[in-house]
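Cross-posting from the modeling subforum.

Setting up a comparison between two proteins and wanted a second pair of eyes on the formatting. Protein 1 (sequence, then structure tokens):
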Amino acid sequence: MFVKFGIEGFISLKAFFHCYFCLYESILNMKIPHFLFLICLIQSCSKTIQQLPPNAKLSAKYVVLDETLSPGNVKCSEDIKAFDEMGENDCSFILKEFEFDIEDKFVLDDKGTVAEFWNYLSEGPVTYSINELKLDTSLFNSIGGNRLLVMSSSDGSAIIDSGDTMKIEQVFPDEKLVFVELDPSLKKNGRRFIYEYKIESVQK
């Protein structure tokens, strides 16, 4: 069971009650009216992270079936795992109660361009290195690899993908994944982009 504040802003009941008691204890002696307490509780417990850490570096872009279509998809294995427990051949993962099935994955180099392309089929992913993609210009162009450039905005609140700026809806620090605002055409087709990042060490 979970308390839901929008599809990207829900928290588990366990986390909700933990937040409730912590907040209640902190303001117990402040004599705050009940309705104001409730407002404080919702704002405190439903807060989502919408900004990348300063030392975050985008490392991959996933094209996935959205949380509506994925549960009915039979292409992926029924053994659905948490994102950080996936093996190389797994194409389905759970993120905060929702299932997502991967169609394509773009592994990014340090410049934000394509280093590898993974196309997920029922028998497993077919992978292409950048050298293989450049030899097959038809495929390279059809997947948009020739113009793909992914980076975060200077303040970390948006992702710029091939010239399109998409505001970050939620950052998942444990999995190091990022949801961005849905493009209308993607939403219509039941797809969404999910980005992965890594934390770079700060050089002193």
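Protein 2 (same layout):
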Amino acid sequence: MNSFTKFFHELMNPHCPDCLREHSERYEERNHCRTCDALEMQLSIANQRITSLLNKEVEPRVTEDTEPKRQVIQTRHVPWHVKRQMLENESRAKAIANARSAKPDVKSEQGLEIDNDKINAVVNTEVNNASDNIKDLEEAVGISTH
């Protein structure tokens, strides 16, 4: 058929079985070229990559859960008189311990007997009292060291 008669035939008989078969054959030939197949394959690979990346983003990460969570340390303002009392108590305890450790040498040279157990007991009680006072002050102020 020439193009003129073909045009009128398609115009008058749009659902002609012969024309539909011919049209579908031409359409299939156009859809199955090598370039189109390669492009379809590349498109499907790209879509698979995108879906796998999206699935990885949606899944929870296990490595973050195993790491210990770090807590933010918030510093609090300590009044100077409380800080001074804490420092004084610490320095008293150190001075007492130093004085007690230095005295046995002097007394032992003079011939006086020294009972180390008594000295250690006194130093320990004084240090414990100082640390209890510090803990009481920290609780009063609202500072927690533990």
